[in-house]
Design brief:
The complex is a heterodimer of chains A (503) and B (274).
Chain A lengths: L9 E5 L9 H5 L5 E3 L3 E3 L9 H5 L5 E5 L12 H13 L2 E4 L14 E3 L20 E3 L8 E3 L5 E3 L9 E3 L3 E3 L9 H14 L3 E2 L16 E5 L8 H6 L2 E5 L10 E3 L6 H7 L7 E3 L9 H15 L4 E6 L4 H10 L4 E5 L8 E2 H6 L4 H14 L7 E5 L5 H10 L3 E4 L1 H6 L22 H4 L4 H26 L14 E3 L4 H7 L2 E2 L3
Parallel strand pairs in A: 11-21, 12-13, 13-14, 14-17, 17-18, 18-20, 20-21, 22-23
Antiparallel strand pairs in A: 1-4, 2-3, 5-19, 6-22, 7-10, 8-9, 15-16
Chain B lengths: L2 H7 L11 E5 L2 E5 L5 H13 L4 E8 L14 E7 L9 E8 L12 E6 L15 E4 L20 E4 L12 E7 L21 E7 L11 E5 L2 H18 L3 H4 L4 E6 L9 E2 L2
Parallel strand pairs in B: 2-3, 3-4, 4-5, 5-6, 6-7, 7-8, 8-9, 9-10
Antiparallel strand pairs in B: 1-2, 10-12, 11-12
The chains are: A alpha/beta (503), B alpha/beta (274).
Chain lengths: 503, 274
């Protein structure tokens, strides 16, 4: 019996007539596909189709193809399912996967269209007219109080205006990715870009490396169940703190950074020994209820002179009621993560089958908080596969204040979505701690690419707002009247509060 | 955050939104916490420390939360009279806190350094994610005590419970030392419940006396503490005995059981992928 029944997913084809025999592919591949004997010789079984070798081949002589081995068609037993069974029969292990849900679930975003102005009201040209994207993240007062400014006008009354809010130049932030799951150079790129764009990056649960201290005003520091690197200094450095309860890719599941990824620097930042597993329990063992959550929120506020505290949850069936509890517990923002959100590693069965689409979660949470009269008390951050500025705009129209991008940010840094984050061998130097790989990301280069992406999407959002005839993103926020659904069933339309096209 | 929001959300009934009565005598400040909302009690403690006092006495404490929360500095002692509320000494980084009474849940949560001495009983989830410092409890403790305690280089947390403890003690423990004595208890029955050390992948648990194998998580090995162990345990127990006026020789008159993880990577072979 052969060791494995699983055949290579891809075929690496090298045109040896063109090949320079330079060995660049051997050096570039983090997966160990290539050996070299007068010319590069690929081992197809190791290829993840990440295109690192293709991109860096000076002769452009490498092509990665799907291995078109015919398996008898079976719409029920897909080849992926068959491979899983074979692998688990070999190992007895839990199937692990990286990035987000890759199953062909319906995308609600793709069934929503935006409105635009024609004839009866004018659209606005954002290139020549002011278009406000600035957004304040955090709790807003129930009513605004003003007082005379002594010069005949009025000003916000002391303590009665928007206090303890974080100013964002555009309603987009980087989603939490921990140092450990991604490399330090990725963290630096995100932090530098956040500073340049006037937005925020999020440490994830792996602590804040000292190299990021200069960017601390643009950093959300996360507190997860493993409490890695959490001490008073860490909490006080962040612009805001975030209690991570759940993640869209793995609702209800804890984290587990394997010992191989805990090198010296990661160990210092997480404040745990090198080489030992970093285990985040599935729940916070000091949060078993909304009351306990309130206790932790106020503990964090007490420790930091009342800085803003957000709570990140995965979108699950009862998300609206949970979000209401979170707001009532005193959170300054609720971070909703949909089930297509990415991960450094998650059991595949959880990644692909647990949770809710972010579109549904935004709409039901926004509506619930409005119905209860507490929508002003917390901002909503939405994440979990925001793939373009169209998703960005639709998320805001559904009720989000801010979106967060993680997978898109990694793609800006070279990610090709090969879903091998959990292997620790990322050829693009992103989700790895191997020094020969991490040095592939130059933070300066990374920050520029990330800034470009943020600026491009923000500009596109401005174009959308202009077409809608509004001059501020505030006017789109929760304005589901500017959305219509195509091909969504009646019940879904009702749940997300969007009319079908034509109505 | 405006005060109006805070009041509308409602403090716990019976507490007053007022500043506590504070008196200073040399290097000691006394804060009367009677019926005062925790926020104002803790503000007064912070103000006293900022003023350079070395001893802060907080009297008439009745469940006020977060005492010692996030405080730094090693030359400060906070003496609490009454029952300290939830999350006592959470994120604390240096001071000594002594409770003349009982404490509730979450003592030493994510604590970095310092000492907490509780002359009474304490509740559940003590020392969660604690990275350094010492928590000594004279009496009984609840569930999930010492959960996910960890250690990092010179930071090694130590928790000693004089009484008995319930299920899941030392769960997920990644470092540090948890000691259960089972001596000053108001309960009959075993010194500890079940699932002790479940998921443990670092650190050490010492129990005075013996445990049944069924009580111990599958990630732990069970040993009898030897002379080497007593070299690290001895000084801790001496300090503990001194704090609570106990007889050190009596404490060590019974052999200790030692629980250590079999692997620092208990789930290393759990996963596979294509």
């Amino acid at each position: 019996m052969p060791i494995s029944l699983i055949q290579p997913e891809f075929k690496v084809e090298i045109d040896y007539d063109k090949c320079h025999k330079c060995g660049r592919c051997v050096q570039q591949c983090g997966w160990g596909v290539y050996s070299f004997n007068e010319r590069p010789i690929p081992d197809d079984s190791k290829c993840r189709a990440c295109h690192r070798c293709v991109t860096y081949c000076p002769a452009h002589c490498i092509v990665i193809k799907k291995n078109d081995l015919a398996l008898r068609d079976n719409a029920n037993w897909t080849s992926a399912l068959r491979k899983s069974v074979w692998r688990q029969a070999e190992t007895g292990g839990v199937m692990l996967a990286g990035m987000g849900n890759d199953k062909p679930y319906q995308s609600v975003f793709d069934h929503l269209v935006l409105d635009a102005c024609q004839v009866t009201n004018p659209s606005i040209d954002p290139l020549r007219e002011p278009m406000e994207l600035r957004t304040y993240l955090g709790r807003k007062p129930d009513n605004v109080e003003v007082e005379p400014d002594g010069a005949g006008g009025y000003k916000l009354k002391e303590g009665a205006g928007v206090t303890n809010n974080i100013k964002l130049e555009t309603p987009m932030i980087f989603s939490p990715m921990s140092y450990g799951s991604v490399s330090l150079n990725v963290h630096k790129s995100l932090a530098m870009a956040a500073e340049r764009c006037g937005i925020l990056m999020n440490t994830g649960e792996g602590g804040l490396h000292a190299d990021l201290y200069p960017y601390q005003d643009n950093v959300i520091v996360q507190v997860a169940s493993g409490r890695f690197g959490v001490n008073p200094e860490y909490l006080n450095r962040g612009a805001a703190m975030e209690i991570k309860v759940g993640q869209g890719a793995k609702p209800g599941i804890g984290g587990h950074l394997p010992g191989e990824k805990i090198n010296k620097e990661v160990s210092e930042t997480r404040m745990i020994p090198q080489g030992s597993d970093a285990i985040s329990p599935a729940p916070h063992h000091d949060i078993y209820s909304i009351e306990d959550l309130r206790q932790l929120i106020y503990s964090l506020k007490e420790a930091t002179g009342y800085k803003p505290v957000g709570v990140k949850i995965a979108a699950v069936h009862n998300v609206a009621a949970i979000a209401s509890g979170i707001v009532r517990a005193g959170a300054d923002y609720v971070y909703l993560d949909g089930f297509k959100g990415g991960t450094g590693a998650a059991p595949q069965i959880i990644r692909d089958h647990v949770g809710l689409p972010i579109e549904i979660a935004i709409a039901v949470v926004d509506q619930r908080l409005r119905d209860e009269g507490i929508r002003n008390q917390a901002s909503i951050i939405a994440a979990g596969s925001i793939r373009s500025s169209a998703d960005f705009a639709k998320a805001i129209a559904l009720g989000a204040d801010v979106v967060a991008i993680g997978s898109a940010a990694l793609m800006a840094l070279g990610c090709h979505m090969c879903q091998g984050c959990h292997t620790g061998s990322c050829s693009w130097g992103l989700t790895t701690q191997k020094p020969e790989l991490t040095r592939r990301v130059d933070p300066e280069w990374g920050a520029e690419r990330l800034s470009n992406l943020v600026h491009a999407w923000s500009h596109e959002l401005q174009e959308i707002l202009g077409a809608l005839g509004v001059n501020s993103v505030e006017s789109l926020r929760g304005s589901r009247e500017r959305l219509r659904a195509i091909g969504l069933d009646e019940q879904t339309c009702k749940i997300i509060g969007v009319k079908p096209a034509g109505m | 955050m405006t005060e109006t929001t805070e009041i509308r959300q409602g403090p716990i009934e019976g507490y007053l939104m007022v500043e506590p009565h504070v008196t200073r005598d040399g290097d000691t400040v006394t804060i009367d916490a009677a019926s005062v909302y925790y926020k104002y009690v803790n503000q007064a403690i912070r103000a006293a420390i900022a003023d350079g006092v070395t001893t802060v006495r907080v009297i008439n404490v009745n469940g006020q939360r977060y005492i010692g929360n996030g405080l730094s500095g090693t030359d400060v002692t906070i003496e609490v009279y009454g029952t300290a509320g939830q999350d006592l000494s959470m994120f604390m980084n240096g001071p000594t806190v002594r409770i003349h009474g009982n404490a509730q849940d979450g003592v030493g949560n994510t604590m970095n350094a310092g000492r907490v001495m509780i002359h009474g009983d304490a509740g559940d989830v003590l020392g969660y994610g604690m990275r350094g410092g010492r928590v000594y409890i004279k009496g009984d403790v609840g569930y999930r005590v010492g959960i996910h305690m960890k250690a990092y280089e010179s930071l090694v947390p130590v928790m000693v419970c004089g009484g008995k403890s319930r299920d899941f003690s030392g769960e997920y423990m990644a470092g540090g030392m948890l000691v259960l004595l089972g001596m000053n208890s108001q309960f009959d029955g075993p010194i500890v419940g079940g699932y002790i050390g479940t998921g443990m992948h670092g650190g050490v648990i010492y129990l005075r006396g013996e445990v049944e194998p069924w009580q111990v998580g599958k990630e732990c090995g069970i040993f009898t503490a030897d002379e080497e162990d007593m070299k690290t345990l001895g000084p801790v127990l001496k300090e503990y005995a001194e704090e609570f006026g106990m007889d050190y020789d009596e404490i060590i008159s019974v052999p200790f059981t030692k629980l250590v993880p079999i692997s620092h990577r208990p789930y290393g072979k759990l996963y596979t992928y294509v």
